[in-house]
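User: My collaborator and I are trying to settle a disagreement about how two of our proteins should look. Neither of us wants to argue from intuition anymore, so we agreed to look at predicted structures for both before our next call. Could you fold the first one, then the second, and keep them clearly separated?

Assistant: That sounds like a sensible way to settle it. I'll keep them separate. The first protein:
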Amino acid sequence: MEATQTSFSNLQQQHAQLQTKFEEAEIQNAQLRSELANKTQIIQQMKAEVVRNEEFVVSSNIIVTFSPEHFRVNGSTVTRINSTGWVGCFTKPVSKGIHRMSIRNPGTDGIMFGVLNAAKTSKYLTFGANKSSEAAMMNNADGYLYSAGKYPARNIWPREGQEWSAEADLEKRTLHFFIDGIQQQHHFMSIPVPLVFAIDAFYQDV
């Protein structure tokens, strides 16, 4: 009888020890899971930052203004095209990441702002960028979105002096517009990649 009690007592002690070890292992496992989740989040953020930094990125706080010969983005002169009745300006091509470009609305009508297929920039800027089926642009005179010469939807149009921004997500292939930092309701999907940001002004002495 005494031997049975001793054996039972030993088993209870072993069970208690195993229970303690199991609880300690669960705590350690929870800590490791938390650390793993934190590291995973950091890696994802770093990957996104790498994608953004791979190519020329136009920062959201850069304001572009018209001048007689060119306009500037981040201190770099971008290309300007003149033709009968039209003035076109565009940036370097981009193919990855999220890019935003902002301009200050000059208060004159007939200005298109958005993106174009990088491979067809020169051709369509010469004849009016909004006529291209691979354009995604917004008009400052009425707020309508234009592609292939047609307007599918209407946002609030930018008033004189307001900051007018276009943000292209080249992974999702979307183009959203902002007026003084406020995102507008209507946007483009399936935008071309690679693309250029473009300003197309009709009969503008800029």
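The second protein, kept apart from the first:
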Amino acid sequence: MNDKRDIVVIGGSRGAFSVLRNLAEALPAGLPAAAFIVLHVGRHDSVLPELLSKWGKLPACHPVDGEPVSSGRIYVAPPGHHMRLVDQRVRLDEGAPENFARPAIDPLFRSAALAYGARVVAAVLSGDLDDGAAGLAVVRAHGGYCIIQDPADSEAPSMPRAALGSAGANHITNSQSLVQDIVAAVNGASREKLVESETMVADDFDLEARLSQQGLVQPEDLDRIGQRSPLTCPECGGAMWRMRSGAPLRFRCHTGHAFSALSLEDGGDRAAENAIWAAVRAVNERVILARERRDWATQTGDGQQQAAIEQARIDEGVRIAQVLKGLASSSA
């Protein structure tokens, strides 16, 4: 007999906005499930709930912390806040960003799996990098139903492709069929049985989900689910642990920041590019100072020797700056 499911969690980023409009327009009134959406918006003001309510038949809102979960509603993570499901309530927090995002998709997916198990339908939509991949694996490990937008149908295929590699899917859909696939899952569409390796990691997934809700954790707690890494957190500079459970490869620090390897690489590339441009600035300032000193030497009659020394510094600085700018361009 097929199971009914009444919790729908959806995550997306670049390219997901138009998909969410199609979703709102087509979801039926009286949907016997509550829908929760995380769209990467950072701290920018968002009118997404008003738009979703205007476009469709279901009311949408930014929930308040502690609000009870109700069927037939759409809850949208507010800017700058993670949204989690705990004890049949919506919990909001300003905890550490995950994959450089807050709100992030993984905290919602993990908490839903932990709280509702097989009652969860999770959908990963178009987006960059791989937020949602680790969370979808937790949903899968707890028997939830996993839907992924076809990467070929996605404006940004990285996120759905990573989710496929991490957790697989009960159904791969496109933007036009998403709603009927979600409704079918809510109404009990069958899914294949989980393979043993996916169930075996559930305990580690659960502990990681609980630790992520705590924010600050003790090193010995992270030792239970990960291995200490020589890498440092790009957000706070703290020590990081490499998580043992499941794909994708990911890291977590004791202050709560978490990264997939893909997000960490992207952040490292940006940090390296910023460091190179900082070096360009420092070298260019040396060139500016050398020009000032050369002109000063010429004006005050200190002699051609000092002016020649400063000119040599200028020439060297210009060469170094050009090399650095080339490195910055190649790393972009």
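Some points you might bring to the call about the second protein. Residues 193-200 have pLDDT under 50 and may be disordered. The longest strand covers residues 226-232.
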